[in-house]
Amino acid sequence: MGGDQESYVFIRDPEYAWIPAIKTGNDDKKAFVKVPKYRDEQSILCDGGSGAKEWEEDSVPLKDYNKGVLPLQNVDGAGHLKPFPDMCQLTFLHEAGILYNLKYRHGKGLPYTRTGDIIIAVNPFQWFTDIYTEKVRNRYSRILVWEYDPDAGGGDPRDDVDPHVYETSSLCYTGLAFGGKDQSILVSGESGAGKTETVKIAMNHIASCQQGPNAGSMETSPILERVVRSNPLLEAFGNAKTVRNDNSSRFGKYIQLQFDMGTKAEQEFRSRDKATCTLAGSKCEAYLLEKNRISEHGPGERTYHIFYQIIAAKDKTTYWSKLAGTTNEQFMFVGEACTTTIEGMSDADHFANTVTTLGEVGVVDDQLMTLMQAIIMVLQMGNITFEPKAGDDDKSEVSSKKEFADLCELMCIDQNILEVCFTERTMKTRNETYKVPLNPKVAREATESFAKEIYSRAFLWLVRCINDATAAELNYKSGSMKDFGIIGLLDIFGFESFVRNRFEQLCINYCNEKLQAKFTEDIFRSVQLEYEKEGIPLDEISYDDNTDVLDLIEGKTGLLAMLNEECVRPKGEDQAFVTKALAANKKSPCLFANKTNRRGFGIHHYAGKVLYDAEGFVSANQETLPADLSEAASLSSNEILAKHMTNDSCTNFDNKKAAAAEPSRGAPRRAKSNLVSPTVWAKYKGQLASLMAMLKTTNSRYIRCIKPNKPKKPVLMQHVTTIEQLRCAGVVAAVTLSRSAFPNRMDNSVVRFKFWQMWDKEKFPSKGTKDMDQPVKLQHDCQALLACALAPLAENDPKTGKPVTIFCVGKTRSYFKFGALEFLESHRSAGLDVHAIQMQRVARTFLARKKLVGSAKARKEGVFIIQRFCRCVKAKKEAKKEVEKMKIVQAKRLEKQAKEAEEKAFEQQLKAEIEDREYSAKKEYNKYDQRLDEVAGQIKEAEGRFKERKDEAVERVESAKTEAQELRDKLENEIKPAAREPAKQAAAQKTKLEESGKLIAFLQKENKKLKSANDKAKKEMKKVKETNEKLVASNESAGQSFEMLNDQSKKMSNNTSGVNKQIEKYKKDNASLREDLKKKQEFYNAEAQIRLQYQKTLAQILDVFQDNCKDADLVEDVVCVALECESEAKALLAAAEAAAPGM
């Protein structure tokens, strides 16, 4: 590019993708730009830098841009964006231009933008009621359906309305009702972009269209109402919370609205005065439910909603009694929930709605119980664990006995049978059948696979129930009709690229590649129609499609074939699959190896590069239910397990057609082997082929949903995430395709207006004449003008030697190759110097004449102006002085008034404070005086009570003394007869007497303690009196003293009660001692008698022995033994006597 004129461009930025700048010049390798710096990302706009806080000069390498040209901004002369509702009208249609056009409209609350036949819906994260009213619905229906007549000519009716989902739904109904061709709407976008809500809006508007041109209030069709009401069912069983969206659809669905096309006459001569194409029913097809989410989910995410709903349900014990008291944490597949509310409703409330809606589609009573128990079985299977059997790590057995028993009870299957199915695998070849034990890890994986299969079959069973309730084949006109017109709505996951991409992402991206291929065909067809309309040769169109990626995935040596081959091979491995795939497709430009992961590989998708981790690919592709578990399921009393584990259909009324398609006779079939079974990818490819076949029979329209920011905030748009979604949605690819031949375009009238100065009419005369129509003449003028202006860019094709087409002029627009329009913009000022000189000559002449003619009058007017100015200045100075004086006087007066007011307020405040304090002191004094009187009365009462208790205590002490003296006298009288006993008995009695003396001494000590307590009480009483005197002397401490007196009075009462308790205790002890003395006396008397008798007997024995025994040594030994026995007896007696006082 040459030229020295500044131009508004976009440059790449690592943080914000694209930012606006002003190009000031360039050389061969770099462009020099001025970059405005904004406060934040949301403030970055195409505004010529008016909102920038500062500017920065920089240079950018041209090699980073397409053909070394910086993309230009779609702005006016001041650098402000010129937004368009249809981005095909953008002069410079490129990635950056799309981004800033969408950002402007998003900020203005306009969520929909058109790009040809594509509607781009940016999620506003708020509800705009004004664009979804009945009036707006009827307006789109009226303009695009009932008043639109393509045979009458005229322009595009979409020019009269803003882009909207209603536009797409209206054109679909028009195409079906008046064009007679089935229609489809393909809605795509990432999680949280608003796909499901967009489908709802489109369905509601289609129902509005089919009511006719005179539709009144929006009375929803009962059929559509049933379809819309069934959507929460699919959300409950097929949606989950992800990090991107709280209610993310984890499956794809294709809803076919079925229409009664009317009679043949009505179809051939369709009237626009009334609706003869009416809604009859609907069918739903479900695709690729994310099974892995059943058994595991990431942090901050949840598994499918229905699990949480059942656990939170108030009536969950209705479906299984053992759910009572259960929580999310008790089920391993569920775990701790990161939230218990979805879209403002609790899980329990959602479950109530789910049950209600199930009833509306006929799932009640036994069917409802069947469905819910199948879901509960999946929950319970997550709690089944295994351990090595008898220490053998290659075998396994169930370790969670209780959970397993509960599961068997729920499934109505014998425990032994089910355990064998979980822990062993039956292998069947052509000639033999044998069993192979499973280790604990494989057994657990088999259990999880069984749970996933049950859930996916329950989901399909639910889809079939919904179709039974909504399908026109069963419900419209008693099922008498079979052929219907179709408007299909495809709500499917968009292109995905995460940090770690697994088998599911490859399947999803494969689906998007197939859809992108159809999208490319449809866009090419629209471009072809546009070029034909403008009269531009079609040989100028060239574009790249994605057939190379599809060949890589589904070709004979593609990834699908390699993976299926590895699944068939015994002990197939993920790494072997990657190695074979890379070797077989090493010439493919779309496949590359992951140098950091041996089990990884990458694919160049249409939306960009994606790295896949092949770990688990083989097992994920082999997720077919083993024969053992299939047989176990057939034994269950649950209908879903027993009858529907092999039913892959989404309807119950296509079985006859499928049976008719099968041949009745054929060659004998080979014996089946369970070593080879259909893979997940093969099944999915078949589903996808069926979907694409249906879509190819329809006229497709596209809605691309965009999630503008991750925090889900209104107005905000993040550049990088939006650009990535535009690429993944194929919008950038569509733009590239539509502008592949001529990226830029401009109306002929604008070309003539903007670049007329670059036209040398003598060298490049126009072929247009005055007799021609204005559009035709304008076309010839633009042809000559552009041939002149773009002559420096003319070159020949090195291959053919023919001139390269730089531009083409159509009937209404001019089309430019890449770089041509940028060249024109940068050289616009090159031919303006001659015209500028002419304009300056005329202007200077006019000014000079005006100056000469009016010089005298001008001098006079000048004098008046100077006088007025001087007077004005003088008056202003005097006025300023007066104002300053008045300000000083006013300030002094205000200061004096403020001071007086302050003093007055201070005096009033002081007076009020004195009065308040006097009143408070008087009130306090009266309170204390009254309190003193109360305390004095209480003290007198306390003194009286203390005196009475003291006298009572003294009496009790004297009584205790008297009783002690009586006891001592009695003991002495009882001891006297004992004195007549032998000396030892007398000694024992003496010991008893000493003990009694000790008891008496003990009682005396206790008496002294009582006296001491009495003295202490007197002292405390004295302290009470002193406290009373202090209380009277100082009324300020009256309250505290009163509390102290109360405490002391309580203490005295406690002491007195303690003394009474001690006296009672001593009385009881005295009585007990008397009883003990009697018993001990009797015991010692008996002991003494026995001892005397023993000594006499022993002496007699010794005498007899000595007299009769002649062995002197034996006699001596016996005497020694006798003496030892006597000494031991004495020792025992002494010990007993020593222990007696303590007994």
TrEMBL record:
Keyword set includes Cell division: no
Gene Ontology biological process terms from the UniProt entry: actin filament organization
Region (Actin-binding): 688-710
Coiled coil (residue ranges): 884-1034
Gene3D superfamilies linked: 1.10.10.820, 1.20.5.4820, 1.20.58.530, Kinesin motor domain, Myosin VI head, motor domain, U50 subdomain
GO CC terms, sorted: cytoplasm; membrane; myosin complex
InterPro entries: IQ_motif_EF-hand-BS, Kinesin_motor_dom_sf, Myosin_head_motor_dom-like, P-loop_NTPase
Residues annotated to bind ATP: G189, E190, S191, G192, A193, G194, K195, T196
One Pfam family here: Myosin_head
Record-linked SMART domains: MYSc
Alphabetized UniProt keyword annotations: Actin-binding, ATP-binding, Coiled coil, Motor protein, Myosin, Nucleotide-binding
PROSITE patterns linked: MYOSIN_MOTOR (PS51456)
The Myosin motor domain, residue ranges: 82-829
Single GO MF descriptor: ATP binding
Top-rank taxon: Eukaryota
PANTHER family cross-referenced by the UniProt entry: DILUTE CLASS UNCONVENTIONAL MYOSIN, ISOFORM C, MYOSIN
Family classification: Belongs to the TRAFAC class myosin-kinesin ATPase superfamily. Myosin family.
Protein name: Myosin motor domain-containing protein
